[in-house]
Every structure is written in C-alpha cells, then in structure tokens.
Amino acid sequence: MNVEYILIRYGEMTTKGKNRGRFTSILRENVRNRLKSFEKIKITATRDRMYIKLNGEDHEKVAASLKQVFGIHTFSYARKVETELEAIKKGALQAIEELGDTVKTFKVNAQRSYKQFPLNTPQLNRELGGHILQNTEHLTVDVHNPDVAVRVEVRDDATYVTCGEENGAGGYPVGVGGKVMLLLSGGIDSPVAAYMLLKRGVSIEAIHFESPPFTSDRAKQKVTDLASTLTRYCKRVTLHVIPFTEVQKAIHKEMPASYTMTIMRRIMLQIAEKVSVERKALALATGESLGQVASQTLDSMHTINEVTNYPVLRPLLAMDKLEIMDIAKKIDTYDISIRPYEDCCTIFTPANPTTKPKRDKVARFESRFDFTDLINEAVSSKETLIFENEMVRKQFNSVEEQVDIDALL
Amino acid sequence: MIYFDNSATTKPYKEVLETYMTVSEQFFGNPSSIHKLGGKSERLLSKARIQIADLLLVQPSEIIFTSGGTEGNNLAIKGTAMMHRSRGKHLITTEMEHPSIYEAYKQLEELGFEVTYLSPDEDGFISVEKVAGALREDTILVSIIHVNNETGAIQPISEIGQFLKKYPKIFFHVDAVQGIGKVPLHIKKSAIDLLTVSGHKFHSVKGTGFLYVREGVTLSSMMTGGSQEREIRSGTENLAGIVAMARALRITLEKQKSMSDHLLTLRIELLHHLEKIEGAVINSPSSNFAPHILNISFVGLKPEVIVHALSEENIYISTKSACSSKNYEISRVLQSMGKSEQVAGSAIRISLSYENTIEEVKLFIEVMNEVIKNLYKVTR
Questions:
Q1: Is the ipTM of this structure higher than 0.85?
Q2: Distance between CA atoms of A371 and A392, rounded to whole angstroms?
Q3: Tens digit of each residue's pLDDT (9 = 90 or more) over B306-334
Q4: Which fold has domain B2-8+259-379?
Q5: Residue of B nearest to A405 (CA)
Q6: Is residue B22 within 8 Å of residue B243, measured between CB atoms?
Q7: pTM as predicted
Q8: Which residue in the set B34, B36, B247 is minimally distant from A409, CB to CB?
Q9: In this structure, which topology does domain B14-250 adopt according to CATH?
C-alpha cells in the first residue's frame, strides 16, 4: 500500500475533561520520542488527532513502534487528498482497491469538520459509496457489519481517507500519573508489572538487589536488558542497583532460617521506600501475584507490608502465571527473564520458608539485630543507570565497556 | 578491475572488515562462558541477532546463525524431513534450485523420501498452480528459490506462501541467498516458514549466514553438541563473522532503499548493448527479473572461453553458478526451462552489486563487443 500518512486517534483520555491538554501534550512528546529514529517523518498534532507524514519511511516499521506507545486508541494508514469531491472519490476508491479481493463488504463513514463543504455527511457517504460500487465488482455495501469502513475526514486544509484501522496500545500516556518505584528481580513477573503500570500512565524507576559474588554479572545483565527493553514503552527507565550481599549475610547469620525470606523482603521494602523518598516516587510496586510462592501468600504480604506505609502496587495480584507469561512473551521480556542466572532471592533460600509468618514473631527476631547501618550503607552505595531508547544513557559508579558495541553493527 | 561476478561472491565492505577485526581482537570470549568476558561476547551476539531480526521484521529468536547458504539449505531441508518424516515422505522442489538444495533432495530420495521436481516455464518461472498440482496428502515440505541464481527470475514467493498457508502441515522453505538486499521480500507476509541467507553474497565475510526459522517450526538438528542456537545448530558461534554480517546487512539494505534504481540502470544499459551482439540470446526473463543478474548465451561459443578471455582484460564474470562452474557441464537450470542444448551450454552470467558504476558497464560493453567478435572469427 502506498501509505503517505498515519493518522492517530487518542485513547481513553478523551474522556478526561480538564486534564486533556496536558495529556495530549505528553502523548505527543511520547510519540515523538518513540519515533525519533525515523528521521524523515513529520508529526503534526491537533486537538484530537495526530498526523504522521511518512516521507518515505516504512509504514510498518513506524506502526510497530507506535503500537508500543500508551494512550493511542487506534490508528490508520491514510492518504491525504484535496478537499474537493473528485479527489476524495478517487482516493477512497484507491484505498479500498489496495486491500484486494479479501474484502467483500464495506461502508463509507464520512465526517465533516469543514462545514462549508458543499455536500453534507449523508450526501457524501452516498456519493462515495456509489462511486466505489460503480468501479468495483467484488464489493457490496453493508452498513451494520462491514469487512472494512472507509473513513473520510473532510477538513478545511485537506481530506484524509483511511481504510480499516489498527489497534494501538490503549491506556494512558506514560508520565501523566506520577512515579512508581518497582522492585525488578529479573524474573518473569516484575517486567510485566512494569508494563501494566506504564499502561496506566505512571512512569517507572526500578530497584534491583544484587549479591555478588553469589549473583553473577549476567544476573545483573538480565535486569539491565529488561530495563532497556521496557524503554520501548516509555521514554526512560532509571534503574537503581543495590549491593545486598552484606545485608543477606547478616540475615543468614543472625535470623532463624524459616524467617530469613520474610525478613529479607521486609528489608527490601524498607530500602525501596528510602530510595522512593530520595527519588520522589509516590508508591512501591512489585510483580507479586497472590499465592504464587511462599513470600506471596496473604500472610506473608500482611507481615512484609508492615514495614512501609507507602502504597505497594501489585498489578499482577489476581493473574495466573500463564496469563503473565503470555504478556511477557508479547512484550519481549520473556526470553530475557528465563535466562538461567540466579538472583539474590534464590540464594540462601531456606529449605522450608514459613508461608504463614507472624508480625509479632518477626518483630521479636528483628529486635535481636540492628540492620539500620547495613540498610543505610546499601542505599548510599547504590549504582544508578538510566536507560533511554533501549540503551544505557548514563551510568554512575561503574565502568563501561571500552568498545562501543553499537559502532560495530 | 571490473568485478561482475557478485552472485558468486562479493567483496566485503571495509567497515565490515573493521568490525571483524575489532570483534576478533576484543570479543574473543566464548559467548557460552559464564565469566565477564563471555558475558560481553554474549551481549554482542544478542545485539547482532536483534539487529538482523529488526531489519527483516522478524523476531530475534527466529534467526539461527549458520556458516552460509549451503548449510542453511541443508539444515532447512534435511532438518524438516527428519523431524516430520512420520507425517509424510513427500517433498516438493523445482528443477532450477541451487545445488545445495537440489543435491540435498537427491540425498533424501536415497533415504526413501519421494521428491517432485517442478519444471519452470520457458521464462524460468514456477506458478502457484504448478505447486498446487503437485501437493499430496503426505507432502511435508516445499522449497522454492526466491531469485534464481543463474537467470535472476523472481519467483512468486508471496503468492505461493499465501496459497500454502491453507495447508498448515506443509512447511515452506525459501532460498533467499540471491534475493536478499536486491529484491524486496516480506518474510512474514509471504507466510514463509524457513528462509536461507548467506552473508558473503552481500559484502560480509565468507562462512557467515543464517536460517530464518519461524516461531513454532521444529527442525531436527544436523549438528549436535553444546546446544547453541536453540539447540538447532550447536557449535561455538562465529561471533566476529556474525557481527560483521549484521553490519553488512544493514549497509546493504540501506543501499537497496536508495540505490535499487542504480542497479536497474546498469542492467538496462548492459541488456540494451549486449543483445545487439551477433549470436546473443538473452536467457533472463523480460519481466519479474532481479536487477543484478543478466544471463546471456552466445550461441556457438564455449562460455568458459569468454570468461577466460575477459579475465585477461581484468574483467570477471562467470558461467552459470560459480559453485559448479568448474565442471563444464550444461546448465541444468536453463535446460529445465526448455532451452536448447546449444543455448544452455553457452550461457554466461553477469552479476552486479551496488558498488558497480556506469563507467564500468560502458567499458565492459566495449570489451565484450571486441571479445565476442574475435572469438567468432576464430571459431569459424
């Protein structure tokens, strides 16, 4: 198809009265950012639409990127014609002919924001439908359930003709909803949680706990790859890597085996909260789903959650593992997550962690050892990496590779 | 030097060789090693895979690195036949495939498979109807070349793929070795299950290539061992070659976008002048041809004599496909199109790349006129 334009229709936010201006400007910014690598395109935004002029860029590649931008309801491949009846007729006919013989029924759906156009909407629908019927053999009209709707938007400067539409990612534009601190383990769940939160329009910072030499460089690499993959859906992911070895050693040495997991989780939340305060995130988030493993039973959540009064968002709470895996595959994080490197949660795992930890017991155990210094030390020696457009943009406290990998490709 | 034998192999791009050197020197760790050096190599490998997948609009997990076209074709054909032999033992291909396909099928015949070899029409094309007519209950695989390596005829891959989609039990394998970077082909839209690519045909180094294996397609492994490449192709990855190929593919596809008219211009100029030479018969089709291949016979002249005469002038072309052109036999491809023995036995192939210029073409035409005239004089 000879596509010159992509026409984007905004999503759910069209219902949000006053915030709309802010929402659309953030969405525009996100679209611009996501399509930055397509140098030739030109983007124009109006109150309720965006038009991307392709200028020769591959429309499918652009579309694949667009499908990763939240806040887009649907989009269509469009051709721009003059606001003049003959040109519109010709454009509509061409658009439907290019779809081939698989399309059997159609309807015309004209809209006129340019009210001075000589034909009104029903007249225009009839005129265009008639023109298509006269010039094709395989098509009939079906106004209720057509294979394809030919949409015609008559505006004063130009008319856009589109045929069929593609679904966008839906949701809200990332950035309209504040910031969340997500615990990113490297497993299958947490990246999916990130994806679902991003869809609700919040931006994400991630926190990861590493315990070298018990965890390897590649376990960390998994997490950085995940963070960088997530930047397909948002402008930026900031990742904080917390050195956790000393804390874990202390837990292992000082706390009863059946409670080490519970206490480790409690400390993780405390650290995450401290980083949230520093980074002005308003909530913590995890990839927990209820009852999946010992740390995710209701009893565990009750006891672990006690340490923070920040909201802990759990977007996967009621989902099945298989549903979560499906999303992970869809967003390309699955293959990264299943790489077989241990993270800090699986080392020092006791044989029988309790599934019903009690708050009073934990309080008694924790009173025997003061973790405060170790926690503060871990927070202050964190390493922070910033990912943008699937690459590390900035890195603090760590040595980067001497060779620029991208220059080799 | 005028190098017009780009379908035999191409000269690696300078940037590609730089990449090869740097990677060999600085990423020598084995991607499977668990230490840092190995991790570094693995990261680069995965980046190269992603780049290739993105360029071809497929998934990274669908790219299996191989040593080139011959391995890719053998793996696709034998791997499918072995894996799915319990489902059926009938295979379909054409009479004008590259030897690495043709001979693989011959070998499978010895193992008890039945193979239907479709013959092309006189212009060198296989039609959807022909494929349809050969299907049987027990057919498991169809292999068709995208751009024929001798004539440059572009087969209707997309139509055949769409047609075969109705038979989900039949796998569709396409040899895209000559087509890639020269003739557009949408892998997903053409419903292709397996697609062979060789690196050295688009200015990468020798010994590089990959097989596209659609998600969900299972293959028997031909190389077992350390489980690399999703266990389909074991063996320590040729990292320097793979990264070099990823770069070569990117550069080539960029050129395809901006320079496909250039190739066509060269070919038109060649055709226009060469067909006027006495005794010339054009074997390439007059429509649906690749812009970089021109096959032409000078009836009565031995093709190898023309090749030798031109190489005296530092001009390089070939007789039929390079892989077998040392055996002076008559072209199987041209014979399958119904060309006479005389025509099929006197064919030469001129194959271009984006690096060739119009000046080279003009000089070539001049020399060619001279050479052919002299040779005819001698032979008569």
A1: no
A2: 33
A3: 999 999 999 999 987 544 545 557 889 99
A4: Aspartate Aminotransferase, domain 1 (3.90.1150)
A5: B44
A6: no
A7: 0.71
A8: B247
A9: Aspartate Aminotransferase; domain 2 (3.40.640)
